[in-house]
Amino acid sequence: MSSSQPPITPEQLAALPPDFQALLRAVIEYYERRIAELEAKLNKTPQNSSLPPSSQHPHAKLPTNKPKSNKKRGGQPGHAKHARPLLPTDKCDEVHTLKPIECRRCGTKLAGCDAGPLRHQVWELPEIKPHVTEYQRHRLTCRGCGASTCAELPAGVPQGQSGPRLIAFSGLLMAYFRQSKRRTALFLEALLNQPCCAALTVKMQQQVTQALRPPYDELVEQLPTQDQLGMDESPTKEGPNKAWLWTAVAGAFTVFGVRLSRAATLVEEWLGEAFDGVITCDRAKMYWAHGRLQWCWAHLKRDFQALVDSDDGTIKRLGHDLMRPTCELFGLWARYRDGTLTRRGWLRLMQPIRQDIDVLLLRGAFSGNARLKGMCGPLYDHRDRLWTFLEVEGIEPTNNASERALRHAVIWRKLSFGTQSAAGSRFVETMLTTIETCRQQNRSVFDFVTQAVADHFAGQPAPSLLPRV
Fold first, then answer.
1. How far is residue 299's CA from residue 444's CA, in Å, rounded to a whole number?
2. What is the pLDDT of residues 98-140, one digit of tens each?
3. Beta 228-238 vs 241-249: how paired, if at all?
4. Sequence ranges of the domains in the chain
5. Contact partners, residue 46, CB within 8 Å, separation at least 6
6. The whole model's pTM is what?
7. Cβ 160 vs Cβ 203: under 8 Å
């Protein structure tokens, strides 16, 4: 609030008619509340809200208490040397034997061989040029009936001029390496000597989507059978419309979906009524009707930090009281996860923390403060969703798995500003699913996409993205 003199003194206010005084006080209270709300929004940071870290300028981050080091950048004296190991000689494409002709001191002619010569290897890119295969389809005329017959292309040969590896590579340039269609075409022409235009990249995008759709649908069908899923969503664009990019992370695969709504329709479409596992998520209500929930403690910690940052003494005090057991919770979880604490010991140490947090939430719900009541009341009413990770083994207290899965997609969205059509959205969800699932299973995404495109051209079933036994 401004410290300048108010435009009306208490004496002047008292001289006004009672009805006008009440109206003026109501207006003042309204704008005081409005100013407080706007100041609270201005004070939001990635540390005390769900704002992404990229929304904050690097120089705006709070300084750390870590003392500045006087060491220079780079490797320090005495550190272990890291060098690329040499390839075996028989794996090299060329080997040049170099022998000195004469002694470097006296000039005497030298002969013989060194049993252990110094080996120096130089890595270089080969000349890159497309491999072009021509199929000459002869058309022959029958001497009996006069009809002409043209030879068919062999099975697996595409009708267009792009082969499976080129199509897979182009699709990964656009999805994995986040290049636009024009830059993808420019890369193919400038570096690979492959004639290409933006329209051709669109065609290859559609071919990749068609080839990968069966493995994608197979993963979607497996979602209701999973014991646990991490789910999250992020805003995006589809043409002029606002859309949402959803993700569901299972133990061995991940599924993405793009829809024009943030409602629970996609969750119902994916999980149906058969799902009885655990969903780890934030507190968004679209997940409430599906399975058992574990609310993310990383989100809760940021919400508690927002209480700590408040100017209201009551809110700040409860924020500090909630932050202390929350930090203890994360410390114990780290010890349990790295194996230095047994599950029995971890559960025993977590019991007083659980009791303290439940009591503090109850205190906030009955504090009389509107902000604390609005946050702590629902948390206390649904407090069982805070502690599922204590009761079900294998559940994590945070939704970090789905947050990490979304990170690549969010960076892609910032660069591309979303998609321009429903077909583009299908390409994005299919490719993101393939990329993240291959990463989880330690499989080559390029080999998988290439094989899927080749099978699509040959009319064969696509390879599966389900984990290999």
1. 33
2. 999 999 999 999 999 999 999 999 999 888 889 999 999 999 9
3. antiparallel
4. 297-398
5. 52, 53, 55, 56, 302
6. 0.80
7. yes
